[in-house]
Amino acid sequence: MHDPLHQFEVHRLFSFSLGGVDLSFTNSALYMVLGVLLAAVFLLGGVRRAQTIPGRWQGGVEMIYDYLSTVLEGTTGFKGRPYFPFIMTLFLFVLMGNLLGMVPYSFTFTSQIIVTFGLAMMAFGLCTLIGFWKHGFHYFSLFVPQGAPIYMLPLIVPIEILSYLSRPVSLAIRLFANMMAGHTMLKVFAGFTVTLGIYGLAPLCVNTILTAFEILVALLQAYVFTILTCIYLRDALYLH
Amino acid sequence: MSEPSLKSRIQKAEKALKSPKKMLQEPTSRFFHVGVELLAGVLVGAGLGVLTDKIFDTSPWGLIGFFVLGSLAGLLNVYRALTRPLSKHNNHPHA
């Protein structure tokens, strides 16, 4: 029987190291490149022959653009507008990673915690930088809730700081855990199908439903990742 | 005939742009794994605790203290995640 965790193994496609740092090109990196290419082809192909009345492809691109634009403006308002390219890139990268993982025999790079943590730290770092850039040291007032009694501050401020620091961790774990759990489950049920022979029809039915569910999760988690980034961005832009 | 309606539509769009009032986070995504928020708080607390102990050689007090603080932060995260669209957003001074 197949090991259900075998699909998460990262292996080198060709080795390469620079100054003692291992920079080998792995299957994970290959799928990241594929994801970026897919996103670029999707966007550029959609607007290559832009028409007033969009066709299906152009319509799809416009729907994603429009939707993300409403999400961003709904959460951060007018001030969040300059960060739209970042939000859209983040969404498309995560989405393509999740969807590429749904192709049989492919690798899901969003099921690697280092990838999701890297993305989360990038979003978190950007929001923190924007916060300090817009508000200076006044940004630290994010850790002091309005109307809190002064004698509670020694307890509240460390809790607020820890809560702030846990943002990228929760962002990273949410995406990674969802993708990893879903793909493991699919593989486990596929294993049942093979070993059960004729009775394997039952797990096969389950797997069919699970596949549809996994596509929902792939879309939803890309959306959740993006909207949480938008919410953190709002905190950085508006302060309380 | 069409000019005033366009004008009013522009005004409406501009008004919508200026106020981040609508919360677009839907219930499905809101309740999807709020437990992760708790876990993240506890993990960050424990991690900082171990780090403090290693640097200042205060084992095990750093871990104990930060673990408790981290758990509280995790609970705060859960509370925030669940109440975000209802309370925090509507009280927004810029909304």
In short:
Chain A has 240 residues and is mainly alpha-helical.
The portion of residues assigned to helices of chain B is over 70%
* Computed Rg of chain A: 21 Å
Lateral strand order in the biggest sheet of chain A: 1-4
The number of domains of chain A is 1
Describe the largest sheet of chain B.
none
* Mean of all residue-level pLDDT scores of chain A: 90
Order of helices and strands of chain A: EEEEHHHHHH
Which class of secondary structure composition applies to the elements of chain A? mainly alpha
Q: What is the total tally of β strands of chain A?
A: 4
Tell me, what's the shape of chain A? globular
Show unreliable segments of chain B: 86-95
Largest sheet of chain A, in brief, is:
2 strands, antiparallel
Residue share in helix of chain A? 55-70%
Structure description:
The complex is a heterodimer of chains A (240) and B (95). With 240 residues, chain A is mostly helical. Chain A has one domain. Chain A contains six helices and four strands; from the N terminus they run E-E-E-E-H-H-H-H-H-H. Chain A has helices at 27-47, 56-76, 84-100, 113-135, 153-195, 201-238, and strands at residues 12-14, 17-18, 21-22, 25-26. Chain A has a two-stranded antiparallel ribbon. Chain A has a two-stranded antiparallel ribbon with strand order 2-3. In chain A, strand 2 and strand 3 (21-22) form a beta hairpin. The longest helix of chain A has 43 residues, at 153-195. The mean pLDDT of chain A is 90. Chain B has 95 residues and is mostly helical. Chain B has a domain at 33-95. Chain B is 76% helix and 0% strand. Chain B has helices at 2-18, 27-31, 35-56, 61-88. In chain B, helix 3 (35-56) packs antiparallel against helix 4. The two termini of chain B are 33 Å apart. Residues 86-95 of chain B have low confidence and may be disordered. At the A-B interface, helix 2, helix 5 and helix 6 of A face helix 1, helix 3 and helix 4 of B.
